[in-house]
Amino acid sequence: DGGITQSPKYLFRKEGQNVTLSCEQNLNHDAMYWYRQDPGQGLRLIYYSQIVNDFQKGDIAEGYSVSREKKESFPLTVTSAQKNPTAFYLCASSIAGQGNTEAFFGQGTRLTVV
Amino acid sequence: AQSVTQLDSHVSVSEGTPVLLRCNYSSSYSPSLFWYVQHPNKGLQLLLKYTSAATLVKGINGFEAEFKKSETSFHLTKPSAHMSDAAEYFCVVSDISNFGNEKLTFGTGTRLTIIP
Fold first, then answer.
1. What CA–CA distance (Å, rounded) separates B95 from B1?
2. Cβ B34–A102 below 8 Å, yes or no?
3. Least packed by Cβ within 10 Å: which of A5, A10, A78, A90?
4. pLDDT for A2-35, tens place per residue?
5. Range A2-27 burial, b when 16+ CB lie within 10 A, else e
6. Chain A interface, mutation test: which of B27, B29, B102, most A Cβ atoms within 10 Å?
């Protein structure tokens, strides 16, 4: 079945550590996105990528980094520079550049700083 | 710049009564609009989308929405609520940014509670 897989579902990080969240899709989509979800704030865009080896900062990119070495994969690293990383992280993908196609979402990763 | 305003953070209705979740948007161009549903600790699922075709859009699970350009609204409705409709609902606008990239902007969400 086609879809987006995020792993792990739950992740715990100690303060000062970097951690990487995985996102893989087999939908053959060019565009991939990372969102952060906090209660009462909806989804905020962290980074997005329209094509392999290229990505752009979203609205809240500080303290995060990404790579897009393969079409299927778009991992997100939460660095120690991110001051408040505890949140629910969602990865999505879509057919790029048309402005009218739906995004498909993974099941999310809940990151907790301990 | 585009934006989305969901007018109610929380809506409660009795089972079997109509549902209305309100959404207003602003966009510089001709936007595409979506409604997504999220159950607790899950990803988002598309309910329906508007892409400049018919202004009344029908989606899954009996939901529908009407695009009203003059009111810049895209409200979500359902004639009769079911217990399984309890979830968080997001209104989303999709547009092409200044760099030619597609960008999704999410509303802050409306939590729908169904009273037995």
1. 9
2. yes
3. A10
4. 699 999 999 998 988 999 999 999 999 999 999 9
5. eebebeeeebebeeeeebebebbbee
6. B102
